[in-house]
Amino acid sequence: MGGAQRLAEVFVELADTLIDDFDVVDFLQMLTERAVELLGADAAGLMLADQRGALRLMTATTGRARSLEAFEVQSQEGPCMDCFTTGAPVINVDLATAGSRWPAFTAAAAEQGYGAAHALPLRLRGQVIGSMNLFTDAAVHLSPEDLAVGQSMADIATIGLLQQRSLRDQTVLSEQLQGALASRVLLEQAKGVLAERAGVDVTAAFTMMRTHARRHGLTLTSVATAVIEGALDARELLPA
Q: Fewer C-beta neighbours within 10 Å, C or N terminus of the chain?
């Protein structure tokens, strides 16, 4: 895990997004990237519940993780599913010995080269709105200190999603989460469009859009929309 100074910087970075309206997709992407950095994982993914209470994939740090998370949603089996259902962390799962618990998921995880999985709930006062998966290539265990840091990061994300919203107003909450899911779909489309136009992979396309958004004080969603509509030329997003 990173030093105390870096840890403090990350928590300030996460909390800073709560001051004004923030871009949910960019926020969750940052959360998963920082979780990988601080907890020594090889990849992370995050799911949110839609208006019907079904988990939907929001973001992942690598293509391998995205594929595995998508399979978990499809098969309805795996650590994120159990974590969301129970509201409790699912940690230090050696995937080589978890076949009886999640037969389909462990087989898919082995194909992607992962040896261990962990899941942390996005929850506030007993209300669970999603979960974050952490994957390691080797069967690495999270220490109690790592778990505390990871859960605190997940808690901050939950507060960010629920800020200035009534926890008792389920309609508002569902609309907010549905809007986040729609933004994620839009972003995935824009990444594919920009990757083709600029001749780069989708990871580089995402980095280009996020850099442009931050440089010009725009939301990531607005940049993605401009890319899809052709209002933002790929050449404007290429690094100097």
A: C
pLDDT tens, 139-185? Answer: 988 899 998 999 999 998 888 777 645 544 555 556 666 677 777 88
Distance CA 216, CA 38 (A): 28
3-class DSSP state of 92? strand
Quote the tokens at residue 130: 């999603």
- Give pairs for 104-109: CB < 8 Å, separation 24+: 104/71, 104/75, 104/77, 105/68, 105/71, 105/72, 105/75, 105/77, 105/78, 105/79, 108/68, 108/71, 108/72, 108/75, 109/68, 109/135
In order, the DSSP letters of 118-167 are EEEEEEETTEEEEEEEEEESS-PPPPHHHHHHHHHHHHHHHHHHHTTS-T
CB contact set of 23 (below 8 Å; sequence gap of 6+): 183, 213, 219, 220, 221
pLDDT of residue 105: 97
Is the distance from CB of 126 to CB of 101 less than 8 angstroms? no
| Distance separating alpha carbons of residues 229 and 108, to the nearest angstrom | 36
Radius of gyration, alpha carbons of the chain: 18
Token digits of residue 78? 């795996």
Give SS3 for 229. helix
Token pair of 148, please? 């505390």
Task: State whether residue 2 is helix, strand or coil.
Answer: coil
Sheet with 55-60: list strands edge to edge.
55-60, 43-49, 127-136, 116-124, 90-94
Residues 86-145: tens digit of each pLDDT = 999 999 999 999 999 999 999 999 999 999 999 999 998 888 999 999 999 999 888 999
